[in-house]
Automatic annotation (TrEMBL):
Upper classification of the organism: Eukaryota, Viridiplantae, Streptophyta, Embryophyta, Tracheophyta
InterPro entries: DYW_dom (IPR032867), E2_motif (IPR046849), E_motif (IPR046848), PPR_At4g14850-like_plant (IPR046960), PPR_rpt (IPR002885), TPR-like_helical_dom_sf (IPR011990)
PPR repeat coordinates: 75-109, 110-144
Alphabetical keyword list: Repeat
Protein name: DYW domain-containing protein
GO biological process, one term: RNA modification
DYW domain boundaries: 289-381
Molecular functions per Gene Ontology: RNA binding; zinc ion binding
Length: 381
C-alpha cells in the first residue's frame, strides 16, 4: 500500500497490530508503532488501545503500560485492554488496582473487564477474590457468562475442591457447555479422580464428539495411573470417530522472521546446530539441579525414550534457536498453542539462570516470564 502511494489509515494499522498480537510479532509491531507516530495516529484512542493489546500479547507489559499511561480520555475498552494484559501476565494486584482506578475515573467496567479479573484470580489461586468479582458483577447489573463460571470451576478444581466445582456446574443458570465440562475434566485429571473424570468426559463426547481435548485428557489420566488397556480403548474410540490430535507448535520471532517448531522437529535449516546446543544445554541444567519429570510422558516406553521426548518439546527447540541466533542478554518470547508442560516450566527456570536471559512463554492459558530461576506465575497455573 505504501509503495503504491495508497494512504494508510487507522483501520489498516489496527488490522496489522491485531495480526502482530496474535503471533507475538513484536518487531513488526514496533515498526507499526513508529509508522503511527510518524502519521500522527498514535494518539487516537482506538489505535492506542490496539497498541496496548499488541504489546501485552507480545510479552511486553511494561511497554503496554507506557502506551496506556500516555492515553487521554480512556474508555472502557482501553481500560479493559490494560486490565486484561495485566491479568494474562498473572499480575492480580495490579489488575485489581487498575480496576479500582477505572471506577474512580467514572468508567464502569463491563463483562469483559470482570472476566479478565476472574481469570487472573483463577490463575493465581485467589478464590475469595473471584467470589468478590461475582458479587461485584451483580452490583453492576451484569449476569455471569459461561466464561466466568469456567474460571471458578477451574479455580476450585485445581485446589482439589471437586465437589464444590460440581456444585457450581449444577447451579449454572443455563445448560453447562463444553467449556465447563472440559474444565471439570481437566481438574479431575489433575486430582486423579477417575469416576468424576469419566462422567465429565461423557458429557464432552455428547456435546462435541470430534473435539480431541476430552479424549486426550482421559487418555492422559489413564496413562498416569498406568491403565494402559483403557488408554488403548480411548485411542480406538478416537479412531472410530475420526478424532485427530492437535499437534503442539511453538514459534519465536528472530530478526523480523517467525520460526515455527513442532515436537522433535527436524525441518529447520539449522536443525543440527539446534539439537547439538539443546544437548549441551540439557547437560548444563542437569548439572545445575534439573531432574526430568518423566511421569509426564504418558507412553509405555523406557526411561531414556521418555527423557528424549521431554527434551524435544517444541518450546525447547524454539528457545534454543533463539539463544543461538540473538545476542547475549536478549529477551526471548515464545508462543505455544498448547498449555506449557510442567517439566518444560521447570527446565526454563534453570535455562533463564544459565543463559542470563528473560524468557517469556505465551501458552494457551497465560504468560510465563522466566528470569533468574523463577517464573511470574509463581508455579501456579
Amino acid at each position: 500500500m505504501q509503495q503504491e502511494g495508497v494512504k494508510t489509515g487507522s483501520a489498516t494499522f489496527i488490522s496489522v497490530l491485531e495480526a502482530c498480537a496474535s503471533t507475538s510479532a513484536l518487531a513488526l509491531g514496533r515498526v507499526i508503532h513508529q509508522n503511527l507516530v510518524a502519521n500522527g495516529l498514535d494518539r487516537e484512542l482506538i489505535v492506542a488501545t490496539a497498541l496496548v493489546n499488541m504489546y501485552a500479547k507480545c510479552g511486553k507489559l511494561v511497554e503496554a503500560r507506557e502506551v496506556f499511561d500516555q492515553m487521554e480520555g480512556m474508555d472502557v475498552v482501553a481500560w479493559t485492554a490494560i486490565v486484561a494484559g495485566s491479568a494474562q501476565h498473572g499480575h492480580i494486584e495490579e489488575s485489581k488496582d487498575l480496576m479500582r482506578r477505572m471506577e474512580l475515573e467514572g468508567i464502569k467496567p463491563n463483562n469483559v473487564t470482570f472476566l479478565s479479573l476472574v481469570y487472573a484470580c483463577s490463575h493465581s489461586g485467589y478464590l475469595d477474590e473471584a467470589r468478590d468479582c461475582f458479587i461485584a458483577m451483580a452490583d453492576h447489573g451484569f449476569f455471569p457468562l459461561p466464561e466466568h463460571f469456567r474460571c471458578v470451576i477451574d479455580l476450585l478444581g485445581r485446589g482439589g475442591r471437586l465437589e464444590e466445582a460440581q456444585e457450581v456446574i449444577d447451579a449454572m443458570p443455563f445448560e453447562p457447555g463444553l467449556t465447563a465440562w472440559l474444565t471439570m475434566l481437566s481438574a479431575c485429571r489433575l486430582q486423579k479422580d477417575v469416576l468424576r473424570a469419566e462422567i465429565a468426559a461423557e458429557k464432552c463426547y455428547e456435546i462435541e464428539p470430534t473435539r480431541p481435548s476430552a479424549y486426550l485428557l482421559m487418555s492422559n489420566l489413564y496413562a498416569a495411573l498406568e491403565r494402559w488397556d483403557d488408554v488403548e480403548k480411548v485411542r480406538r474410540l478416537m479412531e472410530r470417530r475420526g478424532v485427530k490430535k492437535e499437534p503442539g507448535l511453538s514459534c519465536i520471532e528472530v530478526k523480523n522472521r517467525l520460526h515455527e517448531f513442532g515436537a522433535a522437529d527436524k525441518s529447520h535449516p539449522q536443525k543440527d546446530l539446534i539439537y547439538e546446543e539443546l544437548r549441551k544445554l540439557t547437560l548444563e541444567i542437569k548439572e545445575a539441579g534439573y531432574v526430568p519429570d518423566t511421569s509426564l510422558v504418558l507412553h509405555n516406553v523406557d526411561e531414556e525414550t521418555k527423557q528424549a521426548t521431554l527434551f524435544h518439546h517444541s518450546e525447547r527447540l524454539a528457545v534454543v534457536y533463539g539463544l543461538i541466533n540473538t545476542p547475549p542478554g536478549t529477551s526471548l518470547c515464545v508462543v505455544n498453542n498448547l498449555r506449557m508442560c510442567s517439566d518444560c516450566h521447570t527446565a526454563f527456570k534453570y535455562i533463564s539462570t544459565i543463559s542470563n536471559r528473560q524468557i517469556v512463554v505465551r501458552d494457551a492459558n497465560r504468560f510465563h516470564t522466566f528470569a533468574t530461576g523463577g517464573c511470574s506465575c509463581k508455579d501456579y497455573w
